[in-house]
Amino acid sequence: MIKGAHSHINNMPPEIILYGGTGQAKVIRPIVEYYGSKVVAVFDDTKNLTPPFRDVPLFEGKYLEEWLSKQNKHKIGFCITIGNPHGRVRIRFHNMLMNEGLKPVTIAHPTAYISENAVIGEGTQIMAGAIIMPEAIIGRQCIINTKASIDHECILEDGVEIAPGATLCGSVKCETNSWVCAGATVLPRVTIGCDAIVGAGAVVVNDIPATKTYVGIPAKEIKRSRRNT
Fold first, then answer.
1. Cβ(151)–Cβ(132) below 8 Å
2. Which residues are marked as active site?
3. Phi and psi of 194, rounded to 5°?
4. pLDDT-based confidence at 223, cuts 50/70/90?
5. What is the per-residue pLDDT across 83-98, written as a single tens digit (0 to 9) for each?
6. Using one digit for the tens of pLDDT, what is the confidence trace for 99-142?
7. For the chain, what is the HEC assignment?
8. What are the b/e assignments for 133-156, b being 16+ CB within 10 Å?
């Protein structure tokens, strides 16, 4: 599975930093260690955050440059462990850390299935039991969560999150920073607009405009929207 076009997946430097110190960090660390790399530091901009690990130091993000000045950058990769609705934040940090000379880590749990001709963008995280089918295109800094299913020819732009157990049927398009929540189903050829949210358990039968939140069966708009920059 991790060959050819997928050779960048789980191809990690020996040392990894995580940017984001809550639940996503706890999910990612065991995968990093499974493939033989080591989490050496966690960074987060939240003041007074409880460290996610007892044996890995937690730093505020403002100390990143100082910390990196004492490291061999060629040995360090990064994984941005911040869930949605913060896909645009992941993209911003991705660009910042690449400018610092660090390598983005594209990671997949060993139980995930990825079709040979699917395209997986840099920094994307694919969790346990996730399925990505033929000719799917996944952008940068997406999160395909536990047991999520991405069917044939789906397109996920940068910063998308597909939550646990959610299903995208064939040829679905999810635009930048959209979020399909746990257990939702999106029917074939539907487009989810930029910054839109599909609520947990919803069934989406028509396109969803940018920034809107849809819930229910069939999914209908609720009067709440968000834009994360």
1. no
2. 152
3. -55, 135
4. confident
5. 989 999 999 999 999 9
6. 999 999 999 999 999 999 999 999 999 999 999 999 999 999 99
7. CCCHHHCCECCCCCEEEEECCCHHHHHHHHHHHHCCCEEEEEEECCCCCCCCCCCCCEEEHHHHHHHHCCCCHHHEEEEECCCCCCHHHHHHHHHHHHHCCCEECEEECCCCEECCCCEECCCCEECCCCEECCCCEECCCCEECCCCEECCCCEECCCCEECCCCEECCCCEECCCCEECCCCEECCCCEECCCCEECCCCEECCCECCCEEEECCCCEEEEEECCCC
8. beebbbbbbbbbbbbbbbbbbbbb
Q: Which two tokens stand for residue 104?
A: 């983005």
Amino acid in position 40: V
Instruction: Tokens 């995280």: give the residue.
Output: 125
Residue type, 24: Q
Phi–psi pair at 221, nearest 5 degrees: -70, 140
**Whole-structure pTM value:** 0.94
How many alpha carbons fall within 13 Å on the CB side of residue 72?
5
